[in-house]
Amino acid sequence: MTKRAALELETLTVAYGSACVLSDVSLRVAEGELVALLGRNGAGKTTLLRTVMGLHKPVAGRVLLGGEDVTSLPASSRASLGIGYVPQGRGIFPHLTVWENLTIAYAAVRGRGRNPDPRMIQFVFELFPAIYQLRHRKGGFLSGGEQQQLAIARALLTEPKLLLLDEPTEGIQPSVVQDIAQALCHIGRTLNIAIMLVEQFLDFAWSIADRFYVLQRGRLVAEGETEKDAPQSVAHLLSV
Amino acid sequence: MSEYALLLGQLFNGISVASILLLAALGLALSFGLMGVINMSHGEMLMLGGYLSFLTLRFAPARAAFALAFVAAFFGAGVFGALLEVTLIRRLYGRPLDTLLATWGVSLALQQAARSIFGPIGVEVTAPKWLAGSITVKGGALGGLNFPFVRLFIIGLAVAVLVVMWAIITRTRLGLCVRAVHQDRDMAEALGVRTRLVDLVMFSLGTAIAGLAGAALALIAPVTPTVGQSYIVYAFMVVILGGLGRLLGTLLAAVLVGLFSASVQIFTSVSFADVLLLTFVIAFIQLRPRGIMVVRTRALEEA
Q1: Range of the structural domain that residue B134 is part of
Q2: ipTM of the complex
Q3: Which of A26, B18, B50, B289 would bridge with B223, disulfide CB 3.0–4.6 Å?
C-alpha cells in the first residue's frame, strides 16, 4: 500500500559558492506522513528545508510537490501550491500584530485564485486557544512558546499539503514541547497533511514521527521507521 | 508689519517649505526608507512630473487641464518608475553602491534629455485663476500678513498624500504585505507574498508621488532640467532625519527642516542658512543615529 508522494527530492545538490552543503539527496514524504530529518549542527538540515521551500536554488536535482516539478518556481508560488513553512527562529514579524501575522498567510491561498477557508482559522484557534487571546498583541512581545504556536498556526492558514518545521522545540520549555507534539500529531491525523520535521532531540522525533532520515555532512546516511528501528541505532550519527 | 505678523509669516513660509519637502520625501520614504533602495534619480521624477504638468496644461482642454496635469504627472512618473524598477533596480537588489551609481547615471541622462527637448531655460506653468489670489490680513496686530492660495493648496496636497499613504500602509492588504516584506523578506515570500511584485508597486508608487510633487512645485517655480537636484539632498536628509521606515518621522522631519530654514533665514542669508541646517542635521544624527522615530530596520545595517 504505497501512498502517493507529497514531496520527492531527486538527487538534490545545493552549494554556497564552491562549498557543497547538500549533495545527491533523494528522499520521499508520502501524503499524511510525518517524517523526521535528523543530523548534527551544520549537517544541512535547514538548507534542505529552505531549498524545498524555494528560498535556496539547487545546483542540480529536482524538487517535486505532489508529482509536479517545482524546482524553478519561486517560494511564493510554492506556498500557493501547498507548502507551509515554520523556519528556525520561527520567523514571526515582530512589528505586526498576531492577527496580521496570521492573515498575511492568506496571500498563499489567494495565489490559488480562491478565498481562504473559514474552517481553517476555526481549526487553528481551537488547536491554539492562547493565540486567539493574544490576537491584538505585537508578534515581537510573545514568548518563545507562543511564537512557535503562532508560527505553526500561520503555516496552517496557507492551507498546505506539506508542512515543513525547523526545530519546533528549540528554546521552548518542556511543558510546551508536549503541547506542540500533540498539536502536530493532531494536525497530521485530522488534516492529512504531510509533515517534514527537522529535530535535534531523538525522543521528541520518535514520539511523533513515522519515519526518519539522517543527514551527515550534506549526505543522507541512514533512514528507517520509528516503529522498527530503535533510537539507539542512529544515536552514534548524532552525538557530538 | 508688527513683529508677530513677521513671525507668523515666517512660520507659514516654514510650513510651506515643509510641505514641498514632505511631497519630495514621501516617495523616497517608500523606496529608500522601506525598501533600502538608494534612487539618485528620484529628483528627476520631480522634474518629469513638472514637465508633464507643463505639457498637459499646454495641450489639454482648458477646463480639465489643471486636474489632468496632476494625473499625468502622477501616472507618468509612476510608469517611468515601474520601467526603471524592472529594467535596472530589480537586477541590483542587495548591491546598494551599484544601485547608487546606476541611478545617478539615469539622473544625468534624464537631465540631458530634458535640456535637449525643452532647452536649458525653465518653462513656466501658469496656475489657474482661482489659485492666483491670496488671503491678506488687513489691519490689527497681524496686519500685512499674506497667505497665497498656491501655497495653501500645496500644503493641503501634501497633507492629503500623507494621509492616503498612511491609510495604504496601515489599512490595506498591500500595506500589510509591504510591512511584512520590510520586516522579513524570506518569510513573507514563504507565506505566498509575491515580494517582487510588492517591490515593483511600492517603487512605482514612490516615483509617482515624486511626479505629483514636481507638478506642485511647477506652480511656484519654473521647471528646469536641474529642478530635481535642488530638492534631492533635502529629501534624503528628511528621510534619514525622520528615521527609516516611519511616515510620522518623515512628517516631523520635514516640518523641522522647513521651520529651521525659515526661521534661520530671518537672521541670515539663504546659503548660510543651508550651512546651519546641514550642521544641525549632522549634530542631530550624531545624537540620534536612527532619526526622530526609532525603528529597527535592516535597510542600512546590511548595506
Answers
A1: 3-287
A2: 0.93
A3: B50
